[in-house]
Write a structure and sequence with these properties.
COMMD8, COMM domain-containing protein 8
Amino acid sequence: MVDLLSRLSVQECTRLCHRVVDGLCGQQPPTRADYSSTWTLEEWTELNNSLISLFRLAVYNNTSDEKVVAVLSSVGNSHTDAVLSVLRARREEIHTALLNRTNSISFATLQDFDWQLKLAISSDKMASLHIPLLSLGLSVKENGILRPVAMEMDREELNMLLGSLDAANKKASSVLNSLGNELENIAPVDQWHGNDLGGHLAGSLVGLYT
């Protein structure tokens, strides 16, 4: 939908792109009322979302100018240059905004993990148990500090953990796929995931009690 930019002059296109980046960086975003005579509500929504995805993913993937130009092939050269000029001028601002948004979601990240499977043979209430237990150790980094997290789980608790990890992985994949629809030619979606320690953890634990 970026071809809708051609309805604006080059100067107005530049101004709109700066305001879209303003919104990405937590400042005042553009409003539909400012462009009600240029686009319908549906056109405005699609164009605004397309520009947000363009700037966000171009910075996230450190996309080259050539690939951005390919995405903007449906608009004229002057409008393409206008979008690129905004991207170049404000790349660092967008990068910082994306980092801040990620940090606001979660300050803790999984750095490493280890596990052991052991057998509980008795307790203070029962003479004989013979229940397999998983001892899981996590290394979690929070606010620059690495701290250990230890837990012990039976089969039911492990299944709950695996279900949570699987749901989180599916949610992350869904978000990345939706963000990639507009710029699917910039980089394959499977390159956006990075190091998936959570998925590796889940893969290591699946089947322990089978």
